[in-house]
Amino acid sequence: MAEASTIVDRTHPSAQAPKKTTLQLANLPPKQQGFGAQLYPRTPSRVDPNNPPWPAYRGYHEYSFAHATMGVRLPTILGKAIDDVVKTLNDEYEEERVVDLTECISRMEDLMDDLQGNSKLRPIIDDGEGDIPLWNKEIARYFRGKDFMNAPWLFAEAYKYRRMHECFSLSKYWKSYDVFFRQKCETFSRSGDAVFELSTRFAEPFRQADGATVAEQLEAKRLMFHELTQICLWGNSTDLSLLINMTEEDIKKLQSTGGDHLAATEQNILGNDLAKIWEYVSSDRFGTKEKGGRLDFVLDNAGFELYCDCVYADWLIQSGLCSQIRFHGKRFAWFVSDVTRQDFDWLLNSMVYGHRYLRAVFPNASDSDLASLKKLGLRWKEYVKKGQWVYEQHSFWITGYTYWQLRDEAPDLFIHLADSDLVVFKGDLNHRKLTMDCHVPSETPFPVAIGPLATEPGTPPIVSLRTVKSDVVCGIPAGKADQLDKDEPGWKISGKYAVVLLSEGRKGEPIQF
Ligand SMILES: O=P(O)(O)OC[C@@]1(O)O[C@H](CO)[C@@H](O)[C@@H]1O
């Protein structure tokens, strides 16, 4: 045991840190000015899910879409989901299954109470899914004691959808029930004009004009790339959760795929890197000399949007630009209309085998329209068979983490994506996850706003194809957001504006963990 006299006396004046230490140094370089432009308010190492680089949007921010979503949209969506399950229940006759489904409805009602009563976020009950540890670790570490309204909107909203899955995953017979499946099929069938407009143009494989020079061929490809990228972009406008108040006419207008309409809508792309993206995908850096590149889609909505993604993916293969497309979807029903494997299979199978169904839902379609859809579907299924199209569903996509945490929380996925030549993130929610859904100044360059996914060694080139449907906006010219705030106060949630943004990444550099 130490002698009493050797114990350090922390109160003695000699134990205090000196007030000021002055160094006499004469050889340091002179002080400079001008640091800090476009730096994060927080250094990346201090960013965490509850502390994005700029302040997060939270449900209690009354001025934001977060408030409207948490207070009105989510309860409405949950209410409709309950209606859907009741419909299924009415068709069921086996007692055990009926009782089991009734319990799912009770859990949904509890969730409704939690949501409307602004309860604290509890851990997700272990239902055997692979994402549980990720969820509960994140809740414990960053959101203990937080409730639906004061947690960052992005997390609280994702959490609500995970809780909705829990209502079913704890059951015996209804584990993979998708409350949105009916709605997703309906959006496809409500989009008849645009569906056949595309199928009749693309059913015949892509061919260059006879006798075209190399330069003409390249220009033809460039133009096609330009238009199809926009079709893929605007296919996202018809998001189901926003369709609640839309007439069929409105939807048709949004989905119009005619050339003139596209030229006009390009003016609504506020941050537009299309030319840069073409420059990259048509260069030697994309893929190898012998074969085209690998492109990954991080998917958003099923139904019409997925169909547009597939039309685009088809052309990317046909044109030789890509040799492989990997589609990343969700493992189970997630935000209202997000793609699951079931949706992906449903689309391809209905196109090929759903003749009777298609006839019923598209009563105005001609035989030739339906045949064009089948031809397209057959080709797409062939891609799947040959491995040119691959569908994947990593657990990370259905967690509450944003993509600022992708590398640390899902290193295997990061390594996998690093092999891609281009990762295309579709839609608003993916954009929110890329940017951590915070008050980033709107003129901030996209690569700055997505942080580590642009700056870490090995990050692949990334594109965000997003129609703007919520508050976060980056990568647009200075002053544009202020002007729109004045002229069109609802511009951030209308889906009328979009961004097509590129981060070049650091592909090929050794990944470090
Ligand atoms: O991701 P998407 O389909 O383009 O848009 C989805 C959306 O309507 O719902 C999300 C969640 O509320 C919001 O990010 C956005 O407003």
TrEMBL record:
Keywords: Hydrolase, Manganese, Metal-binding
GO terms classed as biological process: DNA damage response; intracellular phosphate ion homeostasis
Cofactors demanded by this protein: Mn(2+); Ni(2+)
Span list, region Disordered: 30-53
EC number: 3.1.3.-
Domain Damage-control phosphatase ARMT1-like metal-binding positions: 70-484
Family listed: Belongs to the damage-control phosphatase family. Sugar phosphate phosphatase III subfamily.
Name recorded for this polypeptide: Sugar phosphate phosphatase
Species, as recorded: Rhodotorula paludigena
